[in-house]
Specification:
It is a single chain. The chain is α+β, with helices and mostly antiparallel strands. It folds into two domains: 2-137 and 248-353, no CATH class; 153-225, no CATH class. Helix content is 59%, strand content 15%. It has eleven helices and seven strands. Strands 1, 2, 3, 4, 5, 6 and 7 form a seven-stranded antiparallel β-sheet that branches. α2 runs parallel beside α9 (277-284), α9 runs parallel beside α11 and α10 (298-324) packs antiparallel against α11 (330-353). The radius of gyration is 26 Å and the shape is elongated. The two termini are 25 Å apart.
Length: 355
Amino acid sequence: MNGALAAYLRRRVAVHTVLLAIFFIALMQALELMDMTTDVLDRGLGIEGLAYYAALRAPSQITVALPLAALLGAMWAFYDLARHHEMIAIRTAGVNLKQIVVYLLPVPLVVAMTHIALSQAVVPDTEAALQSWWTATAPRDDTPQPSWLRTSTGPVSYLTASADGERLGGVRIYVRGDNTLLTERIAARSAQWQHGAWRLEGVQRLVVPGATVPRADEPISLWQTNLTPDDVRRANIARPNLSSAALIDVLGGERIASQPLSYYQTALVRSFVLPLAPFIMLLLALPAARGLPRRNNEAGALLLALGLGLAFLLCDGFMAALGTTGRIPAVVAALAAPLLFSAIGLLQLHFAERR
């Protein structure tokens, strides 16, 4: 019996979660396309361009929708069970809320695995592809603004970049010594990625060994650095999404950083913590399972569950903002909200069983 009941409960929660995820993704797509349609059509990209834009945005939108869908999906299923007195029958059969939570664990596990797969392997690539496509289709700018990056050799700026990130124009490289002071400035007309290094053309060097400031011009020079075309493609993304491995490489100095280090530190810790959100949402949805029609407290139970879930998302986002800006340690920023609301959910479960 328990096996059949577990499958039944999982199916109910999973179906509601999937339906809500589809609804939220469609809503986000509609709202974003309403805002972007004019820009896409002004570039002459047509309906195909809108479809391509929507396809590239979909993976990141799915990762945003999954936690809220997990909360409301569990709430919806619990509410239906309570409204149709199925929860009373389940509890009468000797199945408590702790067992119900255990039965349902495969559902948030699948949601968490989906989130991991998308955030680690899909979203970084689609985000970079969208940025490259958007840059390549942008109207020509007669007065381009320089883009700045921090590399292993020092700060670098460039005025233009190809869509694939393999060719730069108007390059300025500021080389720092061991004491972090400027030792050399390299200006190049262009830089081409070839065989794991940048081939600089039209090079002008300004070396500062002390009081003297000698100059040297070279037609061609090779530049060895940790800057790669993939980094160039992501350079203008305000809040880049990177896989955990890429974040570790940035913090280790193997990849360039376009954001403060606190951003990457917080993002790395959060990449391990965010998959816990569906499990926390399942615990926070438990009040909906206790709303009994004969007690006339359905609305209060639903509002409590919804309020807790939204409070978790708000608190988590607020702490993440503090962490990425370096105002609090990355570990605190990533763990504070999950630990607090996990404790609230577990306390709910504990006290529900004592009634």
